[in-house]
Write a structure and sequence with these properties.
By secondary structure, the protein is of the alpha+beta class. The protein is 20% helix and 32% strand. The chain has helices spanning 19-23, 72-78, 118-133; strands at 10-14, 33-43, 48-57, 67-69, 86-88, 91-96, 102-103, 114-115, 138-141.
Length: 143
């Protein structure tokens, strides 16, 4: 099973590090979770690809958070469980595509959950661009 090339809208599994965990000194996320690839940029002479990830969670968004509910049909398409899920737009991690924290969605079966529909991706992208312009997008850079 080969790791795919990063594509915007692809949902992968990653040990996402929340800002409150980073503030408490954690260097890695507490658990692996589905995350949406928002951007994939090739940087430097060596061609290292960096991806920007938005986390998916069951937890209802905290007050003031910017989140997008995943429609149940999309959740089923991705193979997520039946609980309501949200893409959190105001938290992100920027990581190298080769980061060891990116793991198969189902070891031995599939690398990724699949892709979110273009309209849902555009909604996420627009929300994150708006947050970035207002300096309200929290980006955790991981090495």
């Amino acid at each position: 099973m080969k790791k795919p090339e990063p594509q915007v809208g692809l949902v992968i599994r990653y040990d996402f590090l929340w800002s409150h965990e980073r503030e408490r000194g954690f260097e890695g996320g507490v658990k692996d979770r589905p995350c949406v690839i928002v951007t994939a940029i090739v940087r430097g002479a060596g061609g290292l690809t960096e991806v920007l990830l938005a986390p998916i969670t069951h937890s209802p968004p905290r007050e003031g958070a910017v989140a997008i509910a995943i429609p149940p049909r999309v959740g089923r398409h991705l193979g997520l469980d039946e609980e309501r899920s949200f893409i959190i737009a105001d938290e992100s991690n920027s990581v190298a595509w080769e980061d060891a924290g990116i793991v198969p969605a189902e070891p031995g079966k599939r690398w990724a959950y699949g892709r979110i529909p273009q309209a849902l991706y555009e909604q996420l992208r627009a929300a994150m661009l708006d947050l970035h312009s207002k300096r309200k997008l929290r980006i955790g850079r991981r090495s």
